[in-house]
């Protein structure tokens, strides 16, 4: 709902200033990504109310900004808008708009997100190590899991770097836009690799009837290739429609390019898995031994689909809820769901996997046996050597007269 108003403000800014001639003693009209700034006389400051048509600028108590305060954009003596010294990019001072309470809420969400992505990264790296270390786990199904884990690791890393870039004063526009693009790409790849997991299981159980060998190049193209095409279209659209503010401001048309395919992938995956369950229930009695091998993976995928899709449902609901308290709660929930997704994926697909549990417990038993044997064989030597070692160290101490 607010996106329409945001787009309307951009359009009005362009139309209202279309026929204004350029004057060297004035800074030209400009849209800075949040608000429209009219032509301003050199050596003067343009001042206006903080925008109220975006959620982060509204006056309902959840926002970081309030409409009764003012934003300032200085026009320099040379007829150019003020540029931030370290980056030389044009800059608007919105600091007076920001409430202390809003700042604390933003920093709380930032710390929560960084913590969530860090936990997800560590958990996923451990899970990847397990999959690569144990040869008995090497199969196409686990290879699919590896790709999914890598996509979540990259997304967590990109998200941390991108969020951190917004805490750096005057950060390079090229750098933060690059991080934003990578963040969008890795987020899309997360959902398309989940779609690949669903298609793989469906093909394995329904089409190929438990013949595990499939052409993984097709899945690689879908999981990594399609998000790249989506990203290319997104980047071009952002350059054309709204090339400002590190692309952090919402642009409806561009958002559809990313979130549209994600929503489609979630719906397709849900339909595939529902059909998969139907087929499994019909074949369970006749092929119980074969199907039992894949029950765990199917259960895991069924749990993850609503889990991963819930944040997009909540974000959509948030657009139409005017209540500030509800919006505040939803914003924290979506923050947690986004940052801890990788952790949930690693737990469900790796640490709760029966094969992984059996293999790791067996490995611990073998390690314990070898350690016990080694300890018994060395214990006598250690006891014999300990006195000699102590004596040699005593000889090195200074002697008293």
Q: What can you tell me about this protein's structure?
A:
There is one protein chain. By secondary structure, the chain is mainly α. The protein folds into two domains: 2-97, Hormone receptor fold; 100-360, Up-down Bundle (Rhopdopsin 7-helix transmembrane proteins). The protein contains ten helices and six strands. The strands form three sheets. It has a two-stranded antiparallel sheet. The chain has a two-stranded antiparallel sheet with strand order 2-3. The longest helix has 43 residues, at 354-396. It is elongated. The chain starts with a helix and ends in a 5-residue tail after the last helix. The chain crosses the membrane at residues 114-134, 146-165, 191-210, 217-236, 256-281, 302-321, 333-352. Belongs to the G-protein coupled receptor 2 family. Its main location: membrane.
Summarize, please.
The chain is mainly α. The protein has helices spanning 2-16, 100-133, 140-165, 173-207, 216-241, 252-283, 288-318, 324-339, 341-351, 354-396; strands at 26-27, 30-31, 36-37, 40-41, 45-49, 70-74. Helix 2 packs parallel to helix 8 (324-339) and helix 6 packs antiparallel against helix 7.
Helix content: 55-70%
- Cα distance spanning the termini: 91 Å
CATH architecture classification of the largest domain: Up-down Bundle
Number of strands: 6
**Radius of gyration of CA atoms, rounded to a whole number:** 29 Å
Major sheet: arrangement of strands: 1-4
Q: Class of the largest domain, according to the CATH hierarchy? A: Mainly Alpha
Instruction: List unreliable stretches of 5+ residues.
Output: 57-67, 364-401
By CATH, the topology of the largest domain is: Rhopdopsin 7-helix transmembrane proteins
* Helix-and-strand structural type: mainly alpha
